[in-house]
């Protein structure tokens, strides 16, 4: 049976890529002093009886580097969108102009920049944990195969491969975090 064991490293890689993708999305939502439509991605609005992403209730534009606008399609949702932005923790004060909500992006002060680097570090730690969970799943499969008759040499070979994959992705997380923190601290 041991000769038949083949760990699906493609599956492990795909799952670790998913963790990296999620980390990039979370990083994109962090404000760096520049306007970006992606900073509103995590904000959900109560619309038509369910929680809905902002980009599904209006058009999000970035007309200038320090301004985001949302053209809400349904007049009845303008107040809910404004409330969702205020309560999102983005630190942005929305201004209404009919069905258009303008979000002026203030300069980040030093204290807020440091807070954002800590948030980025938390996001990175969540990604590391997710990657380690994928590693643990792979190691568990190897241990099960060992119990089913895999040789110790094969076990060590597979474990080394899973560990190398894990180390590669942890390094990618650390590099992404370092880049994001530099971006945040840039004045």
Mean pLDDT: 87
CATH topology-level fold name of the largest domain: Topoisomerase I, Chain A, domain 4
Q: Which spans have pLDDT < 50 for at least 5 consecutive residues?
A: none
Radius of gyration: 22 Å
CATH architecture identity of the largest domain: Orthogonal Bundle
Indicate the structural class.
Answer: alpha+beta
Helix content: 40-55%
Distance between the termini: 60 Å
**CATH homologous superfamily identity of the largest domain:** Ribosome-recycling factor
Write down the CATH class of the largest domain.
Answer: Mainly Alpha
Number of helices: 4
Q: What proportion strand?
A: 15-25%
Task: Describe the fold and architecture.
The chain has 187 residues and is an alpha+beta fold. The protein folds into 2 domains: 9-27 and 109-185, Ribosome-recycling factor (Topoisomerase I, Chain A, domain 4, Orthogonal Bundle), CATH 1.10.132; 34-104, Gyrase A, domain 2 (2-Layer Sandwich), CATH 3.30.1360. 54% of the residues lie in helices and 16% in strands. The protein is built from 4 helices and 6 strands, in the order αββββαββαα. The strands form 2 sheets. A 4-stranded antiparallel β-sheet has the order 3-4-6-5, covered by helices on one side. Strands 1-2 form a two-stranded antiparallel ribbon. The N and C termini lie far apart (60 Å). The mean pLDDT is 87.
